Amino acid sequence: MSIAAMVARRERLLGPGNPLFYEDPVHLVRGEGVWLFDADGRRYLDCYNNVPCVGHCHPKVVEALCRQAKLLNTHTRYLHENILDYAERLLGKFDGSLDRLALACTGSEANELALRIARFNTGGEGFICTNATYHGNTAAVAQISPIFEPFEGYSEAIRMVPWPDAYRPLNNLSGAALADAYADEVQRAIDSFKAKGVKFAGMLVCPIFANEGLPKVPPGYLEKAVGHVRRAGGLYVADEVQAGFGRTGRWWGHEQSGVIPDIVTLGKPMGAGHPISGVVARGELLDSFRLRQEYFNTFGGNPVSCAVAEAVLQVIEEEGLVHNAAEVGEYVLRLFQELQSRHEIIGDVRGRGLFFGMDLVSDRKTKAPASEQTKRVVNAMRHKGVLMGNIGQHGNVLKLRPPLCFSKENADFLVSALDEVLSAE
Amino acid sequence: MSIAAMVARRERLLGPGNPLFYEDPVHLVRGEGVWLFDADGRRYLDCYNNVPCVGHCHPKVVEALCRQAKLLNTHTRYLHENILDYAERLLGKFDGSLDRLALACTGSEANELALRIARFNTGGEGFICTNATYHGNTAAVAQISPIFEPFEGYSEAIRMVPWPDAYRPLNNLSGAALADAYADEVQRAIDSFKAKGVKFAGMLVCPIFANEGLPKVPPGYLEKAVGHVRRAGGLYVADEVQAGFGRTGRWWGHEQSGVIPDIVTLGKPMGAGHPISGVVARGELLDSFRLRQEYFNTFGGNPVSCAVAEAVLQVIEEEGLVHNAAEVGEYVLRLFQELQSRHEIIGDVRGRGLFFGMDLVSDRKTKAPASEQTKRVVNAMRHKGVLMGNIGQHGNVLKLRPPLCFSKENADFLVSALDEVLSAE
Questions:
Q1: Is the pLDDT at B396 greater than 90, yes or no?
Q2: Residues B18-24, mean pLDDT to the nearest whole number
Q3: DSSP conformational letter for B199
Q4: Which residue from A95, A111, B154, B405 has the highest number of Cβ atoms inside 10 Å of its Cβ?
Q5: Measured between CB atoms, does B140 come within 8 Å of chain A?
Q6: CA A358 to chain centre
Q7: Does B15 sit within 8 Å of A275, measured CB to CB?
């Protein structure tokens, strides 16, 4: 079936408005490691997908899935060892204060649960997020996902703060003064809740501000902002749905910020594509919530999901993927910086492990976002056999998050293609 | 590891407040067809779990899962045929007016999405549910799930109506007058929204009122109630998370009610335990929503989930499980009625295909709920090797929803055990 026929069939069955990548959509049929293959046998280097963190269709993950699916798949109102073994192994990777796990199926569900836990424990409602982020698709989580403005409008319980950005800095400040200025915005939001009589509950942010375009965060910002939050009686929820599981070259994105969150949410790479997500929290926060509010998730924590998630942790450890993300990540960053020295359009290059943002500008002085060119680059790269995306408030940041088994050889392939595409711009 | 040690370990890792069945929890390790096996090799007849609708670990479902998991698992922003094939096959089982599908991962997500679609399309907020139901665990869906009172309290946008019950009827009415009386309660809720200045959006109910205890619904009730809803500009959302996929002896629970919903939500049995859920709606409702509100679900509709869900549909068709649910369901109902003639405690027996409610009472005249005895029966049946649950506003309704491959022989085993347990009460 032709691509056009598939798109028409999709429109008829699923309707319009379903997001689809690329001007010429890609029809994928197979994946292996960092490679994806389309129906014509064409190969693509996957530089976009963080979900298959251990590589597409990793044999050990598939084997764990099949083995448990043949044995038993049921819910957590019966006892099963898989959820306990997984919880033990996963919690062992967090600071000792984060000692309880609740499992769900999607990142949206994890953030829903985190909001409810924080609101229950603080007795407040007011939440702070940034002004260019996304945390999920439910009504409550859409309130803190301004990238896609919710049709419901925003409630009085939400305040948005500017995301911390050292490339286009607030008031042209830098260093500690810049971190202070962004943290002051958090304090202003807290004050504004007070003025409106909304009791404050907390702040929910991605610790690496992935959807904001992976900015260079002014050093000390999160410590200062979270300090304001905690002094006002609020909780700090770190959304690790993108940053977690080794992506940044450390196990968790929040490790680089110097602040231990009160609640952490997990998702995407957790099951390498199998729908599993989770909330890790300080015990007293989760326990008091659960003792008051029955929370049950039919598929959450089932033996198959836990077998898959455990296999993902094992592979990350056995193959040294956190270290690989750090090492190959540095290598890619150096190559990107070298590209930047030759391509005027690259205004800024950011990286955290194997997560990269390349900020394209039409003018390095004004730093005006090159939004249209960024789209063209993404589409041109697809035709060169490299998959990536774009992100950020103006859509002008190339977004790259390859599987964690990405090699230096893969990086050379990527950079050579990108060099060609940028040269043609 | 002993049961006590597992429970302690569970408490330490997951915290208290995690629902766990039975006074002596069951540690399951294997499932096959209608049977579950614990760590000591003991066999249990599964009369509770509707999720593994085609039987535990059905080889064709496991095979489809493993085949696709080895090939590719990615999201719907690339094209893939599995989601299109599945959507075509699934939509073919609905009335022609219900012609669009959106996929998610859990029943809560499906009901979240349905609420947002209905609120967007009506421009209203007010929703009606019954006063003894459950539809999911997110903040918005918890508002229409009064079985577990939300700590947030209820908003002005929610009204609860008495569930339609011919066994303990409103004002001792019967027949058409009873249906009218219950439907009048829906009209009263609509009027009350108007009085409070809340624009009405719709009604969301399970078409067989599963969580309410599977009552005998007064004939014509839903047609009348939905008539009121539609005249007031509201939409009717049918939650088929429990009733769907052949459970009632028809494909969908709403088929028996004579009313075609505007929106249908699907979940639990859809992937026989694999996390997949969906919203089926009239095209214009879903389309207008999606064109305004970006909705994306990372795991929703992925090739693996769709392969599994397609295999579930195939098995239901190939093995004639809808017909089996109707036929064996009738057989079980006759046996239950025979039990009722010999056991005073059985006040009422209800059945829809392979879904049963047995209403236990301490006095047949007053119909006083025998809540404590019901718990004892459930625990005693577990020791006899039969798994079931209890439900309803007073917890006094035995709830049975075996896999759809349940046989007459299985039914004889169940009824014989239940006869012994009730005789000992």
A1: yes
A2: 96
A3: P
A4: A111
A5: yes
A6: 16
A7: no
Whole-angstrom CA distances from A187 to A193, A228, B349 are: 10, 6, 60
Region A259-269: what's the mean pLDDT? 98
Inter-chain CB proximity B80 and A30 less than 8 Å: no
CB pairs under 8 A between A and B: 296
- By the 8 A CB rule, do B282 and B262 touch? yes
For residue A113, the domain's CATH number is 3.40.640.10
d(C-alpha B97, C-alpha B281), whole Å: 8
What is the C-alpha separation between A225 and A179, in angstroms, rounded?
Answer: 9
Nearest to B74 by CA among A67, A308, A269: A269
- Best of A2, A88, A112 to substitute, by most chain B Cβ atoms within 10 angstroms, is A112
Which of B318, B350, B375 represents a domain boundary (last residue)?
B318
Total structural domains within chain B:
2
- Helix (H), strand (E) counts: chain A: 12, 16
pLDDT digits (tens, 9 = 90+) for A288-326: 999 999 999 999 999 999 999 999 999 999 999 999 999
Based on the domain organization, do A79 and A203 belong to the same domain?
Answer: yes
Instruction: Place A392 in a pLDDT band, splitting at 50, 70 and 90.
Output: confident
**CA gap B289, A19 in Å, rounded:** 13
Does residue B216 share a domain with residue B194? Answer: yes
Among candidate residues A163, A160, A162, the one with its CA nearest the CA of residue A193 = A160
Give the Cα separation of B140 and B130 in Å (integer): 15
What's the complex ipTM? 0.97
User: Looking at residues B372-389, what average pLDDT do you find?
Assistant: 98
Q: pLDDT tens digit string along B323-360?
A: 999 999 999 999 999 999 999 999 999 999 999 999 99
CA B322, chain centre distance (Å): 16
Q: Which of B271, B292, B318 is the last residue of a domain?
A: B318
Distance CA A275, CA B275 (A): 6
Assessment of whether the complete model's pTM goes beyond 0.95: yes
